[in-house]
Design brief:
CATH architecture: Sandwich
Bound molecules: thymidine-5'-diphosphate
Largest sheet: 5 strands, antiparallel
Structural class: mainly beta
Oligomer: single chain
Helix content: under 10%
CATH class: Mainly Beta
Strand content: 35-45%
Number of helices: 1
Number of domains: 1
CATH superfamily: Jelly Rolls
Length: about 140
């Protein structure tokens, strides 16, 4: 299982009132790392599969702040799990060294991603076989 048992859904504090909703995500408090990077994905067609990589050093939290999508996580040893992102106050925590696919994007999906590291393409593993080999080395 390696790091896959660390994958978990997170519930963020809400401070909405009659003026509307407000959801709070503080680094090192509501999520288990300091936020160094944020990006968001929208306008992906329903049949698109994104991600398809593992990260050697970066941890992520994914939140569908609008719309819905799914995340499939694989541990490289044959185990996989599927999570639905369908509420703006819940997210999924992804540790390092898990393979992830994001798919089934609704038309209105806006997927916010918070990351523990700045972008470094060399810490991405984009070849599944390479990922399995690095998992085996552990
Ligand atoms: P990619 O990793 O393929 O996105 P996803 O994980 O959603 O499938 O990234 C798409 C492009 O954007 C790729 O050329 C790398 C670039 N990129 C950055 O420059 N910085 C970033 O923080 C991210 C996530 C991607």
């Amino acid at each position: 299982m390696h790091n896959m048992n660390q994958v978990k859904m997170l519930d963020f504090p809400q401070r909405g009132d009659e003026r509307g909703h407000l959801v709070i995500i503080e680094g090192n408090q509501d999520i288990p790392f300091e936020i160094k990077r944020a990006f968001y994905i929208f306008g992906s067609d329903h049949d698109v599969v994104r991600g398809q990589h593992a990260n050697r050093r970066t941890q992520f939290v994914l939140i569908n702040v609008a719309g819905t999508s799914k995340v499939k996580v694989k541990d490289g040893e044959g185990n996989e799990a599927i999570f639905c992102l369908n509420r703006p106050h819940t997210g999924i925590y992804l540790p390092t060294m898990v393979w992830k696919d994001m798919y089934d994007f609704s038309e209105d999906s806006v997927l916010l991603v918070l990351a523990s590291e700045h972008y470094d393409p060399t810490e991405y593993i984009r070849d599944y076989q390479q990922f399995v080999e690095e998992i085996d080395e552990d």
